[in-house]
Amino acid sequence: MSKIPFERPVINKVQAGVADKFGMHAGFKTIPYIDGVPVKDIIRQNGSPCYVISEKIIRDTYKKAMTAFQTRYPKVQFAWSYKTNYLNAVCKVFHQEGSWAEVVSGFEYAKAIANGVPGNKIIFNGPDKSNEDLTLAIANGSYIHIDHFDELYTLIELTAQLGQKAKVAIRVNMDTGIYPRWDRFGFNFENGEAWSALNKIMVAENLDLMGLHTHIGTYITTPNAYAVATSKLSDLAVRIERKYNYHLKYIDLGGGFASKNTLKGAYLPGTDTCPTFDDYAEAITTALNDSDIQYEHMPTLFLESGRALIDDAGFLLGSVLANKRLADGRRSTIVDIGVNMLFTSFWYEHEIVPAQITQNDTEDTTIYGPLCMNIDVIRAAIQFPVMNKGDHVVINRIGAYNMTQWMQFISYRPKVVLIDMEGKTHVIRENETHETMNALDVVPGHLAEFDL
Ligand SMILES: *Cc1c(COP(=O)(O)O)cnc(C)c1O
After folding, report:
1. Closest-lying ligand 1 atom to the alpha carbon of residue 255
2. What is the pLDDT of residues 169-225, one digit of tens each?
3. Around Cβ 278, how many Cβ atoms within 10 Å?
4. Within a domain: 448
5. Rounded to the nearest whole angstrom, what is the distance from the C-alpha of residue 381 to the centroid of ligand 1?
6. DSSP single-letter state for residue 299
7. CATH number, domain with residue 324
């Protein structure tokens, strides 16, 4: 029998924290394995820090979301939001599951094409599409979601010059009862702008109106906002039916479903407050089924969910660099994960846990990253056990936005590893090196030499 480790007795000052009437549980969670693979082995083979993606969690989450919608509405199509995580391996898991691609730039569009997505299964959103981007999207028969009148007029001109038709939809913004309202994208519903844009498209010779789109925001925790959005888009579809006897192919409710992460300042943990896919599906499909859209012409329901489909599948592994006491006596732990690698730490209280069994007694601790910057704080205050230099930590639910909004800063970006369905690990993105970081720098001749 192994000796039980000694735990020093501690007296902790009670910190005012988040607790419901039952109090928070006393045990301390650890994550020693991801999909059966020991964290310490992943770090030994790939270095620290290291991002990990679980293919199994992606596929399971996708299936859960698809089932929630498909059981309530017959025609559902997901399109993977590239900007949420555009590592090619990740996109391809979604494409294997049947997802189309949803892109918001020429760069993402090129990525989707290079990943093998047929042009007519790409949804092209966003306010920034160049004439070259639009020309390519028209030629490929992609769905162009028009953001503003300037883009609408550009498309009318371009399609006339090219003698080709474009498949289009408009993005609609509206009051869904949540604030702040995202009224900077698309055409407004309430002030009649969306209706005017639709009429302009209907009379434009080379524009084929395919559907209606909205993306009401992100991390939306009120499913009812989607019910309101669905009703408003359905109203527009019905008006088009009545005026033109024309039936739209799809209604696209965008993304924005919340993930289980906890927002900074939230009273309850995200795991308690995040609606389920069933909650969102119930709100959207009920509004759609209850609308006056003609039954024989019920549109396909497009969904562009990003965050909610990938957040849980991402993990960031790291190591403890040091412990130290701050001047006021508070404990701090420095880890090798900086905020530049964890962009979402600016608005989430990320869960960070040890990768090995530790003592159960915890102390109020600040967790700092390794950057030489005062803002590099992973958690300002967390009840944390003492960990030794070299011990490993895991931050979970980091799959959304961190591998696209990461910033190269002070040192190299690390590897990303995928754990496949059999528990085998694959490097899906290499770490940066001195060579990759210098490849784009150019030094003018007169600066080549110096004498010190
Ligand atoms: C970012 C974005 C999405 C994905 O949003 P999530 O909040 O990650 O679900 C979907 N559609 C559009 C147009 C977007 O800009």
Report:
1. 9
2. 999 999 999 888 888 999 999 999 999 999 999 999 999 999 999 999 999 999 999
3. 16
4. no
5. 30
6. P
7. 2.40.37.10
